[in-house]
Design a protein that fits this description.
Blueprint lengths: L1 H10 L4 H21 L9 H29 L5 H27 L1 H6 L1 E4 L6 E5 H35 L9 H26 L3 E5 L5 H4 L6 E5 L3
Antiparallel strand pairs: 1-2, 1-4, 3-4
Helix pairs in contact: 1-2, 1-7, 2-3, 2-4, 3-4, 4-6, 6-7
Length: 230
């Protein structure tokens, strides 16, 4: 499903209805991913899920329409090359900002209650830490931006290069053009996803001194481990 959302979103003419539909589809998909890959030991209320989902969709639509309106108003004043790049990167910007909002909102409960930190050798749980939760969510947000960049920022560049090299032609060979878009997105996705996960593994360590003072005072070990989620 993931691979069908981004290519179709890039290919379909971006009118108001189409933009709204694809941003809603993408953020619905992301909300499911964030819920499924959260730190499951931290409870998430229905209110948090609904508010997170609503914030993500609202952010995606606001950024998309706001940036589109700005570009439309100022396109004539811009250098043609700059305008072209800005237009091509608009979907990435909207999705990246919305992905961060989606992740932060859907996992806000972890910041409120904290997540478990423990000894990786013995499995002993030291307690719950809001500081660890902040790190976990920040790293997850960054990984979401990397994945969005791979699927929405790089494929348009690859497409542009392929068109200039006359390898594909949307007007003369539309089916080949569509298949190429899917192929570019697939290559980028399957390259960026493992890379993002490798950069930020699910289980992370952090210095004990960076925890809340009252919790750090109880721990003799220099580092603790926490479950970042995916």
């Amino acid at each position: 499903m993931f691979l069908s959302i981004y290519p179709l979103g890039l290919l379909v003419p971006q009118g108001t209805a189409a933009t709204a539909f694809w941003q809603w589809t993408n953020q619905t998909h992301n909300a499911l991913i964030n819920y499924s890959n959260r730190n499951a030991k931290t409870p998430v209320t229905t209110f948090q899920q609904v508010s997170g989902y609503s914030l993500a969709v609202g952010t995606a639509l606001s950024v998309s329409f706001g940036c589109a309106a700005y570009l439309k108003k100022n396109m004539a004043k811009m250098n043609p090359k700059v305008a072209g790049v800005a237009s091509a990167l608009l979907p990435f910007g909207a999705v990246a900002v919305a992905n961060v909002a989606n992740t932060a909102a859907m996992r806000n409960g972890e910041i409120s209650t904290g997540i478990e930190v423990y000894n990786p050798d013995t499995g002993e749980v030291y307690g719950t830490s809001k500081e660890a939760a902040k790190k976990a969510i920040a790293l997850t947000c960054f990984s979401r931006v990397i994945i969005a960049a791979g699927c929405l920022a790089i494929p348009p560049v690859m497409t542009s290069l392929a068109v200039k090299a006359k390898l594909i032609d949307q007007a003369k060979r539309p089916k080949q053009f569509i298949l190429a878009q899917f192929a570019f997105c697939a290559v980028c996705f399957f390259s960026c996803l493992p890379g993002a996960i490798a950069l930020f593994p699910q289980y992370r360590t952090m210095p004990t001194c960076e925890l809340e003072p009252e919790l750090a005072a109880k721990i003799k070990a220099e580092t603790v481990t926490y479950n970042k989620g995916l």
